[in-house]
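Recall the central idea of this unit: under ordinary conditions, the amino acid sequence of a chain determines the structure it adopts. In this exercise we apply that idea directly, starting from the sequence alone.
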Amino acid sequence: MRRLTTTRRTTAAASTVLALALSATACGGSPGPASGQELSGQTVTVAGVWTGSEQKNFRKVLDAFTKETGAKTVFVPTGDNVSTFVGSKIEGGNAPDVAMVPQVGVLQQFAKEGWLEPLSEKTAKTAGANLATVWKSYGTVDKTYYGLYFKAAHKSTVWYSPSAFEQAGVAEPKSYTDMLKAGRTLADSGLPAFSVAGEDGWTLTDWFENIYLSQAGPEKYDQLAAHTLPWTDASVVKALTTLGEVFKDKQLVAGGSAGALRTDFPGSIEQVFGPEPKAGMVYEGDFVGGMAKDDFGKKLGEDAKFFPFPGVDSGKAPVVSGGDAAVVLKDGKNKKAAQRLLEFMATPEAASVWAGAGGFLSPNKDVDLASYADDTTRSTAKSLVDAGDSVRFDMSDQAPAAFGGTKGAGEWKLLQDFLRDPSDPKATAAKLEAAAAKAYKS
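Accordingly, the structure predicted from this sequence is:
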């Protein structure tokens, strides 16, 4: 998702970035003194979507690799469309050595195109010891391990204004029903419950995924993600009906559906944590906290808090995640150094570098929680790791981009239409199935 890179989607063109970056953006300019020299004189080029503070903090990880091995590093911004960028560089004979891939579907595409090198035995062994099996499975295609998940997102967090809750006299809800009840109490006190970023269709897929995972369970979630279960299944209709209860309630959605469809993701954060609050809560991932802190000066744990997305009906509380996987490209010029970088990134020491800088969660269970800069981030990191193999990767990120990742099309567009008019969940399910069938077939 971004991109606001953490949010996943923006439009960006990057056809000439690599050539410019190779000449001008060596990480930190100079590697500085190195305690290890095994890769002295070698350069590793890493392509990824990150910009701004995310890129700056990832460069700290690369600097740590330089200190350990002596290798220079170059970070190359790809823009949001990693697949197009990497494909064009391979075709032009100028492939990066490593790519950070933000979607399972794209990783699978790269593997099937024959673009990837299997990860080294050392990386696989280290990751096998400190990652839940589910993370290794998302990086595996046809029984070959290609993708090391390094950065994760916890997309089952509901963020709220403590002052709004206090004024309305509501506490953190423990169930989905209680969350809606608390939302209506908030509205009665003068502040609508949720700010919904309907202009960015990916946020609506996240709403659906959390409800569906809790209500239908992980087995059906996996089947729907693989499209071995049709979107017309009764479980999908039930989840859409549940979601529609939120969308149709003007007490629950700030500005109603029309207002939500005019609200982008950054705007949804501002509506809760900005100078003129228009809602008490905003559902999205752990990255909301970073934006509340960085953009609006909120102190996490005091001015901005979260509670886990609660279980729906009798289901368990869901843990939906996203993440970025490191892969080694066959056509890169320095595969040995690239493999060594991933061996480093598989360690808790590498993840701890970014954990201390902020805006980061690691799926690595061996990362010391004390590495994170604040209690709120520690709490989300612990929740993600404690979920173990019950974590499920963002469903839309597992789908072909035509269905799960294209603005104005597929799931994004159809859920925006559903936000506008949630009166017929069965009809929406049928449209989703038609779009999915076409995308998965192609």
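The domain at 157-318 is CATH 3.40.190.10 (D-Maltodextrin-Binding Protein; domain 2).
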